[in-house]
Design a protein that fits this description.
Elements: H1 12-22, H2 30-39, H3 44-47, E1 59-64, E2 71-77, E3 85-86, E4 92-99, E5 102-107, E6 124-130, E7 135-138, E8 144-148, E9 156-163, E10 168-172, E11 179-183, E12 188-189, E13 192-193
Length: 203
């Protein structure tokens, strides 16, 4: 595989097939994966079957398990839905917009407990607007983030890739920086709703 050249990715199935090849290796070429995601142009006909919305919170919908190397999922955001501030459990996190737009708000890691308290709360680093077919990337060395649908009337759909997959992350209180561990669960898997366990989405 020549990582210097990004192949054409006309369909979602092609994207998944290319990702499986990329993640056969133990090393992750972040730029190449970003280019692959950017090369795929959103086609709702291909991903609608995975897009499951909930009235009260955003949902995480598993599309592909990546042979244990990565998880590919659709996150569906109703109007004004937002995530907590969270980390990514030392994983790579790629995010691509399939429909609508989302705002990503990045934060510095809070001071460790036992050190001088930050009276201002968590420190915001930057805000990024992600629009249709846009791609962004974050890992824990780059900070923490919150993702939010700023629209009060329109939904949004984003495609996320986590490598390696993780079942729990840390969430943070913006006012105090205090953290707690939180499970990461799916609202649906492969287009079918998960009937057992909590559907709550946090990360």
């Amino acid at each position: 595989m020549d990582v210097s050249k990004t192949p054409e990715v006309p369909t979602l199935d092609d994207l998944i097939r290319e990702l499986h090849q990329v993640f056969d290796s133990d090393e992750v070429n972040v730029e190449y994966v970003q280019n692959l995601l950017a090369a795929y142009k959103s086609n709702p006909i291909e991903w609608k079957k995975f897009a499951k919305f909930d009235r009260y919170k955003y949902t995480r919908n598993l599309v592909d398990e990546g042979n244990g190397k990565f998880n590919l999922m659709l996150l569906c955001w109703g109007p004004s839905h937002t995530s907590t501030i969270h980390d990514h459990a030392d994983a790579h996190c790629f995010m691509k917009m399939l429909e609508g737009s989302l705002q990503e708000v990045r934060f510095e890691w809070p001071k460790e407990e036992g050190t001088e308290e930050n009276e201002e709360g968590m420190v915001e680093i930057e805000r990024n607007m992600l629009k249709l077919n846009g791609v962004c990337y974050i890992n824990d060395s780059l900070g923490l983030h919150r993702v939010e649908n700023a629209s009060h009337s329109e939904g949004a759909v984003s495609l996320h890739l986590y490598c390696p997959p993780f079942s729990a992350c840390q969430i943070f209180d913006e006012r105090t920086g205090k953290k707690m561990k939180c499970p990461v669960t799916f609202w649906s898997k492969f287009g079918k709703k998960v009937e057992h366990g909590s559907p709550k989405s946090t990360c």
